[in-house]
Amino acid sequence: MNTLERREFLKSGLQGLGITVCSGTILTILSSCEMNEDPMQPDVKTFPVFISLDDPANQELNRIGGAMYYNESSLNNGEDFIIIKVEAEKFLALSSFCTHQGCQVNIPSSDKPTLFCPCHFAEFSPMTGEVIKQPNQGSATNLPVFNTEYDAINNRLTVYLPGNA
Question: Could you tell me the pTM of the whole model?
């Protein structure tokens, strides 16, 4: 076998190997797209909490960007949650505890417009609860968000919280 034939043989072999490796990788990528990658979540029973926005105690929720802690002791393991008025008729209700190590996050203020964890300085979006800055050690995930419904006629917000009943 001369040098030219040998080169052609090696070139063909390496091309075949490259095609084999690439096709295997492509098949793996395509098959992973078909699978549902969301982890199975346990069924969590939720219960409505009705919040009157006419109540003076909830006046902070009458302005866009207004935020407050709220507690319904029989739901959400008795833990505070945060409510933020995102738009004229849209509210965000979410856990008030950082997913990093469980410290209570601060609601947005003029000094700090994010949901801010004072323990390790993680920050979360006040519009979605998504992590926008990881803590200075370790990592956090998005804050759990609770479903809400707003009744403009009665100026009442309904938040659906997990419960043990």
Answer: 0.71
